[in-house]
Specification:
The complex is a heterodimer of chains A (about 150) and B (about 525).
Chain A: H1 5-27, H2 36-54, H3 56-62, H4 65-88, H5 104-135
Helix pairs in contact in A: 1-2, 2-3, 2-5, 4-5
Chain B: H1 2-16, H2 29-51, H3 54-79, E1 85-88, E2 99-102, H4 104-131, H5 137-156, H6 160-179, H7 187-217, H8 222-229, H9 236-253, H10 261-268, H11 271-296, H12 298-305, H13 307-328, H14 333-353, H15 357-388, H16 399-402, H17 404-418, H18 424-438, H19 442-468, H20 482-500, H21 503-517
Antiparallel strand pairs in B: 1-2
Classes of the chains: A mainly alpha (about 150), B mainly alpha (about 525).
């Protein structure tokens, strides 16, 4: 893609905006359409378009595969531990009212935000991991692999 | 861990602002058990990936499985008398919220699944190190725990859509686990792919069935669906839903003509995975089938649609004979046992088909007894694979001389598979024959005995291979390591124990069967 000057410049400009939009969708998810899934996908798109235009190697320097795999697991843990905290406070799993018992709505607001963050992290990780897995595949399969 | 803090933490808040919020009674650890049972392995799986340590992976997995097992025992003790526990996730009452519901039927299956996982994991350590790529060792245990979580979730949940979600969690991880056998034999990849296609078709049928039920009732909670379809028995949407669900779950349970994925999957998966899946995965699917047939659609509906008489029973009988005959002609011990599993699933379906308390008791007891029997047998074959590198009859001939303990455990498992008195297999077949006689179907009772004779033939083939054939001339392989022998013998001894002491198995099965025959217990709005 070295000779596609326009693509490269536009991508550089867009990556930042895409990430910003992902964060917007992420943190606005409890008021408007959006949330962890959508934000995660948009966030992943920023890395994927960077990888497509500037080569996989460049993308993996920014976002190394080992980090992607850790993030996959981290997101699930954020989700699960939110629920564990509410359990430790004597409420049901994922009963966000537990965080502010005197005003459950506040707790629910915070709870959904944290849980969605976990979802966002995992979805970003999964999307990028799938892209890496496909893009890093050797172009032909050797006889030994069959 | 949480209980001590829990009781203290909630009270000050409630006291301060009693005017604002309804006073909250803190849940104790005992109340949280249904959730923790699922949560411990679910959290341990990503933790293994996050830590990424090869040394920590196995202890974490084993700790999680053991913790789940202990919790399953507590739950079983609580509900065996007929009590039903309902846990409302997020504090949202059903039918809107997701409900986990534990009664004696699923507590018994939870006990089986967690027990098998706790026994198979110590065995897996050596077996997996030999059969699975070293660098994937850590991820293997994460996958194993996810599969385990999925199976537990399918069993414990009282929400129909939640069943699908957990079914997918367990299925997707199962495909990966089976494909992990590719290091030993490349055919594991095609086996996993076959299962992926068949399993996905099954899951799709299941979810279409759920969609139709949702269309007819507007709810996803099982007890609520049951209530709402009770007066819609003539509704075609509901009938179509029933058909889709039976076929979808039937694919997962490997009901005879829908079984094509099973033999290859069991043959080429790593031995520890085969032992785990054979003892749990199809059993869980059978449980789901029973849950939907009896608790959602209810026994009266089954009488009306006649699915059991015209579809389930003929297929069950077909499985008992056809699969047993195929098993006799196999040249690979793993494959032989896989076909025998198909035949044994026939017995469970037959028990369901009787539509009586005795029949269901037999089905549920056989589900458990066959689980431990197959775990013992597949672990035995796994030990042979470790020492001989394959499980072909020619390859492992004469193993009885070099591996006396492994072979003896397999003989005990084999006897239990036939249903020799004094073993677990006998108990459930006995009750099954009783169920047949009770219904006045003595030809069916004869067929049960006849098909057991076929089991004698293939088990004898196994024994002949191990003991009577001369070992081929090459360096004698030694006995399997103790870490594999102990779990194997635990299961073999369990086969004898549950053959002599039937208090737990028959007690729990009878209690579960009574629960099923009574139909849906209705919504539980109060509770945790």
């Amino acid at each position: 893609m070295r000779h596609h000057l326009i693509l490269r410049v536009v991508t550089k400009l867009l990556v930042g905006a895409i990430i910003l939009f992902a964060l917007y969708v992420q943190f606005h998810g409890d008021f408007s359409p959006g949330g962890g899934f959508q934000a995660g996908v948009i966030m992943a798109v920023a890395f994927i378009i960077y990888g497509v235009v500037f080569s996989l190697r460049q993308a993996q320097r920014v976002f190394p595969p080992w980090l992607v795999h850790k993030l996959l697991a981290l997101g699930v843990l954020i989700y699960a531990f939110t629920g564990l905290v509410s359990m430790a406070l004597g409420y049901e799993y994922l009963n966000y009212g537990a965080f502010t018992p005197h005003h459950p709505e506040h707790g629910q607001h915070w709870g959904i935000l944290i849980v969605e963050l976990g979802v966002g992290v995992t979805v970003t990780g999964v999307m990028v991991a799938i892209y890496y897995a496909f893009a890093a595949r050797p172009p032909t399969i050797s006889d030994k692999d069959w | 861990m949480a209980a001590g803090r829990a009781t203290n933490a909630a009270e000050p808040g409630a006291a301060q602002d009693a005017g604002h919020a309804v006073e909250h009674v803190a849940l104790t650890l005992a109340d949280q058990l249904p959730m923790l049972l699922i949560l411990v392995p679910l959290v341990a799986a990503p933790l293994i990936v996050l830590l990424g340590s090869r040394r920590l992976a196995w202890p974490l997995a084993y700790g999680a499985a053991t913790a789940s097992f202990v919790m399953a025992v507590f739950l079983l003790m609580r509900v065996i008398g007929g009590e039903v526990i309902s846990y409302h996730i997020g504090g949202w009452a059903p039918p809107l919220g997701i409900e986990y519901r534990v009664d004696s039927a699923n507590a018994f299956v939870l006990f089986l699944v967690t027990g098998i996982a706790t026994v198979v994991l110590p065995y897996a350590r050596t077996s997996v190190a030999a059969e699975v790529d070293g660098q994937h060792g850590t991820l293997f245990y994460a996958m194993f725990l996810l599969c385990f979580t999925g199976l537990l979730g399918v069993v414990i949940t009282g929400d129909a859509f939640n069943v699908f979600v957990f079914l997918e969690i367990s299925s997707l991880s199962t495909y990966v686990l089976i494909a992990a056998g590719a290091v030993r034999d490349r055919r594991a990849l095609t086996a996993a792919y076959d299962y992926l296609i068949m399993g996905t078709i099954g899951a799709t049928f299941f979810v279409i069935g759920l969609g139709l039920l949702y269309m007819a009732t507007g709810t996803l909670n099982m007890a609520d669906i049951a209530e709402r379809i009770a007066d819609q028995t003539g509704n075609r949407t509901v009938r179509a839903a029933f058909a889709f669900i039976v076929v979808g779950v039937g694919l997962k349970a490997a009901i005879y003509p829908l079984h094509l994925w099973l033999p290859n999957a069991y043959t080429y998966a790593p031995s520890a995975v085969t032992a785990f899946l054979a003892a749990t995965a199809t059993k869980v699917a059978i449980y789901v089938l029973m849950r939907f047939m009896f608790s959602v659609f209810q026994p009266l509906y089954l009488v009306e649609v006649k699915t059991l008489e015209f579809i389930i029973i003929p297929l069950a009988l077909l499985a008992m004979f056809a699969a047993s005959v195929i098993a006799i002609f196999q040249t690979d011990l793993k494959r032989l046992l896989a076909y025998s599993s198909l035949a044994q699933i026939g017995y469970m379906l037959l028990g369901i088909g009787f539509l009586s308390e005795t029949g269901l008791t037999a089905a549920i007891a056989h589900l458990f007894n066959h689980g431990i029997t197959k775990a013992a047998l597949f672990m035995g074959v796994g030990a042979l694979v470790l020492r001989f590198g394959n499980s072909y009859c020619d390859g492992v001939a004469g193993a009885g001389r070099t591996m006396p303990w492994t072979s003896a455990a397999m003989v005990i498992g084999g006897l239990s598979l036939i249903g020799v008195p004094g073993t677990a297999g006998f108990i459930s077949k006995w009750v099954l024959v009783q169920g047949a006689l009770e219904a006045g179907w003595w030809p069916v009772a004869m067929l049960i005995v006849l098909s057991s004779l076929l089991a004698v033939v293939y088990v004898w083939r196994m024994i002949e291979t191990l003991y009577l054939q001369p070992a081929p001339e090459r360096a004698a392989a030694g006995e399997a390591p103790l870490s594999m022998l102990v779990p194997m013998w635990l299961m073999a001894l369990a086969c004898i124990w549950f053959g002599l002491n039937t208090e737990l198995t028959l007690g729990a099965s009878l209690s579960a069967a009574k629960g099923f025959m009574a139909g849906s217990p209705g919504l539980i709005l109060a509770g945790h």
